Amino acid sequence: MIHLRDVHKSFGGHKVLDGVTLDVAKGESLVVIGGSGAGKSVLIKCILGLVAADSGTITVDGKPKIEFAHFGMLFQGAALFDSLPVWQNVAFRHLQTGISRNQAKDIAIAKLRRVGLSADNADKYPAELSGGMQKRAGLARAIATEPSIIFFDEPTTGLDPIMAGVINRLIREIVTEMGATTITITHDMTSVHAIADKVAMLHAGKVQWTGKTSEIAASDDPHLMQFIHGSADGPISTVR
Ligand SMILES: Nc1ncnc2c1ncn2[C@@H]1O[C@H](COP(=O)(O)OP(=O)(O)OP(=O)(O)O)[C@@H](O)[C@H]1O
């Protein structure tokens, strides 16, 4: 579904991606981990076409460019539009397609329900929702058009561990029922275990380790070990 071959990207003289090769199969949930500055966001931006890779190839569903209509995105911090009520945030793309406002609102309410928010939240503004509810609303927006590919950028950042667990479980359930292909960026190992079929660890511009979630425990890769144990000592520099 998503294939990257030897993707390079530098900013000025700074090599961020130095030959990334990665495959995500249809319906698979890939989680990308790696230290701060490892290039996780740049990688996603290259796939989305927001940043042009210097060399290498990226194909999504056999095409060199991702089709905007086919992907959803949950941004870090939910990134809702403050000036729009929750339902308009969720139905944002539907409102641009010319369907009636009533129809768009019905769709928004159905999606809000799917993420555990009752209909009375539809007319509220994002600032009136708690952080966890905003994250749910962001998730509702990401799935609103039933996209075949969804990107999750640090979906649990800023949430307490219980709410993080709830969001992880929702993400897993929803992507499974939609059959969507997903790429998630996270620092949160609990998310990795809850969401991932496959894990890719970025380090020094390359995929340092990749494997199934179940293979993490048996790995002796020192970079992966340092990351999952949150150790200050190891091959990954802590001055970044
Ligand atoms: N537009 C840009 N111009 C210059 N440098 C950039 C640009 N975008 C990213 N970088 C650099 O690329 C490197 C990787 O950044 P990126 O945001 O992908 O890291 P990350 O792995 O997502 O980190 P974090 O976990 O902290 O979010 C950083 O050193 C960053 O400064």
Automatic annotation (TrEMBL):
- This protein's source sits in the domain of life called Bacteria
Domain ABC transporter, by residue range, is 2-229
Tell me which Pfam families the record gives. Answer: ABC_tran
Record's keyword terms, sorted: ATP-binding, Nucleotide-binding, Transport
Nucleotide-binding is among the record's keywords: yes
Record GO terms (molecular function): ATP binding; ATP hydrolysis activity
Q: SMART domains under this entry?
A: AAA
Question: Under which name does UniProt file this protein?
Answer: Phospholipid/cholesterol/gamma-HCH transport system ATP-binding protein
